[in-house]
Amino acid sequence: MRILRQVAWLLFVGAAIGWLPLPAQAIGPEPAPLAQPVEFTVGYVKVGHLAPIILVADELKKLGVDLKLVEFVRYADARTALLAGSLDAASVGPADLAISLAQGSTNVVGLMGVGSSPKYVIGRNGVKFDSWDDLKGKKIAIAPGSAVWFQFAATLVENGVPYNSFEAVNIQGGGANFDQALKKGDVDGLVTWEPFESIPVMGGYGFFAKGLEYGSSKAVGAELGMFMTTKTTVDGKRAALERFVWAYLKKEDELAKSPAAFADAYAQLSGMAPDVAAQASKIIKLGEVISPDQIKRQAKGFAELGVIQKDVSDQIDAHWDASFVEKALGK
């Protein structure tokens, strides 16, 4: 199949280049407050690896930045709003920089990743998922063209599992739709994201298939998301953007060092029960693991698979700005 040939190529490249998480780094000194307050609008999605976002407003207030948060259900919607000029920055998926460039945007800028985690197929109770061989003949819910789908597909090739050995069931909409399909018995397993991985486990109708981990593909990596901005914001609100990145990384570092605080922030962000948030937060490691090289590999792979319109891997460097993170870290 075409999909398998292309993902196999990505695995070869990924193995040649390699992928390693970035080491934790100390946060730099607090920036000086702005002389005049500046409003800064950020789009976000209620996912665990973005828990620091609900803690930065007070920090930014002291620095002269009035943070306005706008909630979205999907990364794609946040990306659309950013490209439309409605936001100064947005949390998006790891592939959204490449998707934006392929759609013709010349204004978008990638800033930083946010976290990583192992990824397991979520099995329905009573269904055997001990190894990749157990996928055969099963109904697996996927989000076609999503970041988790690409991780999953690449891992299948790495493990020699034919993509057509199981029935891929396309699920549209938010993660709750995946869990509903599993609970009703419409599918045997899920390829989804937190907290919709932990909810079936905590609800007693699903389990983590620990033998089917797909978050460590050499070609795709384990990054869960990223922040993007625009050249308009970089040019017009640089000082506010610098302070947003500093404040976010500061809170991210604090949560990374305190599992209890992370779980509490996750519960506040998502509205989940504290016990569910505590379970879901256990497998997430806050802090970016993404890199321009990884995004280039994804860009080329998504184009080869027809998920995006064209290969924009040669444009990634021009639309990635690491200087904001570097300044926040005191470099």
Written description of the protein model:
- This protein is α/β, with parallel strands linked by helices and 331 residues long.
- It has 13 helices and 12 strands.
- The strands form 3 sheets. Strands 2-1-3-11-4 form a 5-stranded mixed beta sheet.
- α2 (57-62) links the parallel β1 (38-45) and β2 (65-72).
The N- and C-terminal alpha carbons lie at a distance of 47 Å
Shape: globular
Number of E strands: 12
Percentage of residues assigned to helices:
25-40%
Chain oligomer state: single chain
The side-by-side strand order for the widest beta sheet comes to 2-1-3-11-4
Give the SSE order as H and E letters: HEHEHEHEEEEHEHEHEEHHHHEHH
Radius of gyration: 19 Å
Beta-strand residue fraction: 15-25%
Mean pLDDT: 89
User: Which class of secondary structure composition applies to the elements?
Assistant: alpha/beta
Taking pLDDT < 50 over at least 5 consecutive residues as the criterion, the unreliable ranges are 1-23
